[in-house]
Every structure is written in C-alpha cells, then in structure tokens.
Amino acid sequence: MGSHENRRSRLLWSLFLEFLKLGAFTFGGGYAMIPLIEREIVRKRGWLSSEDFADLVAIAEMTPGSLIIKSSTFVGKRVSGILGSVIATLAVTLPPFLVFLVLAAAFLRIVDFPVTQSVFKGVDAAIVALVVTAILSLGKTSISDKKTLLIATGTVIVVFVFGVHPIFALLAAGVAGLVLFR
Amino acid sequence: MILWDLFVTFLKIGIFTFGGGYAMIPLIQSEVVDGFRWLTMKQFVDLVALAEMTPGPLALNSATFVGYLVAGLPGSVMATLALVIPSYAVMLAVQAVYSRIKDRPLVRAAFKGINAAVLGLIVVAVLSLGRTSIVDWGTALIALVLVIAIARFRVHPVLALIAAGVAGFLLFR
Questions:
Q1: Do residues B21 and B51 lie in contact, with contact meaning Cβ atoms separated by under 8 Å?
Q2: What is the pLDDT of residues B148-160, one digit of tens each?
C-alpha cells in the first residue's frame, strides 16, 4: 500500500516537473514544440510511443487549444489518471502565466530594445529549424510508403497552393486512409 | 460583472481556436479590441509581439495579459482558466475514447491517412514560417546548423533555442 502511494506521488511529481519544464520553453507555437515534447516525453520518459505521439499531434490538429496544453492533458491522464492530467496541465501553464503576469504588471517595453530584436531574430531562425526537425522525426513514423507520401504531398498542395482549410484536408485524408489502408 | 465577461470571452476563444497560434489572432482581436475594448489596437499589436518572445502559447499569454489589465490577479487567473478549460475537457474525453479504439484496424487506417496529412500541414507551416524568419544568410545559417545539430547530433531543443538567441545577439546587433 505504502510503496504504491510512493510510486504514485513520485510519478505525479515527475509529471509536474516535466511539464513545468516544457511550459517554460514553449516558444514558436505548436509545431516547434514537437522536437522538445518528443525528446522529453517519448525518448526520455517513455510516457508515449512514437506512434502514439504522431496520433496525438493529429488529434491536436482537430481539437481546440494549443498543442502543448493538449499534450499535458493527454499524457498526464495516461500516466496518472485525472489527477495526473490536472497537475500536468497546471504545470505547463504556470511558467507562461507567471512570466506574463510580471510583464503585464511591469509594463516592460522589452519589445523595443535592440538587443531583444537581434536575439529573437536568432530565435525565430531556431524555430524554423525546430519545425524542420519535427518534419524529419514525424516523417519517419508517418511516411512509410508511396501512398502516405502522396497524401502528404497532396495536403501541401491543397492547403498551401489552393488555401483549403486544414480541417478539410485532414478529413479527406482520414477517408483516404480508410479506403487505402483497410 | 467583469470577471464573468472575461470568463465567457476567453472560454469562447478557447473553444474556437483550432490550429493554434496565428489562427487565434483575429478572434482575440475581435473580442478584446473591437468588442470589449479592453485593449487598444496598439496595445494588441504590442501584446502579440511580446507573446512571440515569451514562453507559452499566444492565446494563453493574451488571457493572462488582458485578464490582468482588466481585473488584476483574479482577472488573469479567471481568463487563463477559461481559456484552458475547453481544451482540457475535450482532450480528456478524446483520450478516453482514443485509448479504447486506437488499435482497431479501421482507426489505424484512418490515422495512417491523417498522420500523413499532418506532415503535409507541418511542411506548409515551414514554408510560411521560413518566408518571415529566414531573411538573410545569417538566419539561414542558424537554421541549417540547428537542423543538423538537433536531428543528427541530438542536441537538446532548449539548448538550440538558447544558442540561437546568443548567435542572434552576436550576428545581428
């Protein structure tokens, strides 16, 4: 009984720390976070397999909210039930919340400092790099044959060139999947 | 009551923002700037710029910021919670269903197609991000070096971000 509770608290504590870390480094929005989440949650902690992580990213595309918050809910629930999901989600929102609270309260105009501009020019380039590595790592799981490559390419054309809303592309791809991969 | 307005507004934003980040900007603007006039357009533009430079999703930062300006600490807590709740609740429900059906052949088949399409969406994101963020040889070099570092040499993404910031400071002063 005692050691089970110990294990549970340790797990909850790990969840809290891990998502606190992720929350502190959420820059550049959804996709840029994929390499970080993969590194910490899939590879380091083993809380998700690569396949399940690819599914999570897909689910995140079709549900409201940001990837990082949805990941915390999903992983937290899976690792340690409802309590896990609450702790992970609170942990991931805490650093941004505190940072922004301080900035709002201080009305710091850090945006205008030239140092800030140059630092973030570099960071923006890093964000592109992060999203490219997301393509490389997710590609290993998601693109396995000519048909999946075709679906991916088709999506790029349809969304980028013809401006179709991503949600339609995803629905069409789901149907295509049912037809092609049964 | 203003806390209630904050709650409802950010609940609405939380429900209707799919696709993250930039997709949320028009909705936040119409509610916060045009609707309630909690921010001026200038303040909103500053907020977006600031949110780019701080951790956390844009919508989350907006909620914290607007909530604080409008109603202090209780406001920021209220707005932030309201934003997160829809996402949290939906995800909890989806996770429960997913864990039960994820290995069914039809579900695997559909996900195979969807996951391939998601990859396409990320490629689209790189194309648009690249256009605004890769503007000269310096930024191109940083991006290229980091892709190799992270993908090939397993450099930690956080380290990459910090290194890029330092490089930016050195190269673009």
A1: no
A2: 999 999 999 999 9
